[in-house]
Write a structure and sequence with these properties.
Elements (H helix, E strand, L loop, with lengths): L9 E7 L2 E7 L9 E10 L5 E9 L3 E5 L10 E10 L2 E5 L3 E2 L3 E2 L2 E4 L2 E5 L5 E7 L14 E9 L10 E3 L3 E4 L10 E9 L9 E9 L5 H4 L6 E6 L7 E3 L3 E3 L5 E3 L4 E7 L6 E8 L8 E8 L1
Parallel strand pairs: 11-18
Antiparallel strand pairs: 1-2, 2-5, 3-4, 3-6, 6-7, 6-8, 6-9, 10-12, 12-16, 13-15, 13-17, 14-16, 17-18, 19-20, 20-21, 22-23, 23-24
Length: 295
């Protein structure tokens, strides 16, 4: 067996003459004697098994494969496996080393969200892990995505439990950095519905809007599952001659006559006024709720 430093194969995207390629790079073993590399490319099938798509033997410390839309599609998770051996003595070889799986296509980050009905905005990033190229239309080169939401929490379709800050985003080509070659962001907020409907599951979907390149036309990005944690709705009361219970459970009585501010929000334009009239007798002074106004 050949021994030496680990090969550490890594897959990175690369644009070659306007076509999307993946490049598998690995650290060479010792420079002497001359070393060859056997590189096996594979993709993850829908059943979770690896399918071989390409194999080559090369003296170079890298190997390329094209995203051709036939053997390799956008949406595939790709691996490269590298074995080193001495030229002329293929029986003396290193142990094969796998790269990490590389997802080629458009994806959301994070891949799932858990949020609450508290009004907070959560950032969702849409990114492409491979370069975007538009030959002949460099001035307006972009990938447009239509975003939509769907409620998965009930058998019958209900109102959406989440809201997006935008229904459409554009991915504009840029330099690839890390796992992103183009990115855009939207915010996701849970709908505050004042309904005790338990935790519900929704999803965000992205659909490409008529891309010219056939490679992108056949691509459907993965959905993002969003779990919305139900928060209890606050309640306050004013009833009969008025007994009042506040949001935090404090109880008191109010027998005054007049129009009063019952509650007001500091965060939005919402308040409730209550009108109390005399409803007692000559023996006792009592006020009752006789009117309410809300905005």
């Amino acid at each position: 067996k050949l021994t030496g430093p680990a090969l550490q194969p890594v897959i990175a995207p690369k644009l070659v003459q306007g076509r999307v390629h993946l490049r598998c790079s690995y650290s060479p073993s010792s420079p002497e004697p001359p070393v060859q590399y056997r590189v096996l490319w594979s993709r993850l099938s829908s059943s979770g098994k690896r399918e071989q798509i390409h194999q080559e033997t090369t003296p170079q410390p890298f190997s390329h494969v094209e995203m051709d839309g036939t053997k390799l599609h956008l949406g595939d998770t790709v691996f490269c496996t590298v074995t080193a051996f001495r030229r002329g003595t293929p029986e003396q070889q290193s142990l094969p080393e796998d790269s990490k799986g590389f997802y080629a296509g458009i994806k959301f980050f994070p891949e799932s969200l858990e949020i609450a009905e508290d009004g907070k905005e959560h950032i969702l990033t849409v990114l492409s892990t491979v370069p975007i190229a538009c030959p002949g239309q460099d001035d307006s080169c972009k990938i447009t995505l239509q975003l939509s939401t769907e409620d998965l929490g009930s058998q019958a379709p209900g109102p959406p439990d989440i809201a997006l800050s935008a229904c459409q985003v554009d991915l504009v080509p840029g330099l690839c950095s890390g796992s992103s070659c183009a990115a855009a962001t939207v915010t996701v907020t849970a709908v505050t519905d004042f309904t005790q409907d338990g935790n519900r599951l929704s999803r965000v979907r992205a659909q490409l809007v008529t891309p010219r390149d056939p490679l992108w036309r056949a691509h459907t990005p993965r959905d993002v599952k969003v779990t919305v944690r139900d928060l209890p709705t606050g309640n306050c009361y004013s009833f009969t001659d008025p007994h009042i219970i506040t949001f935090d459970g404090w109880r008191y009585d109010s027998h005054k006559i007049g129009t009063f501010l019952l509650c007001r929000s500091d965060a939005r334009a919402f308040e409730v006024h209550v009108r109390q009239w005399d409803c007692g007798s000559h023996r006792s002074t009592t006020a009752c709720n006789c009117g309410v106004a809300a905005r």
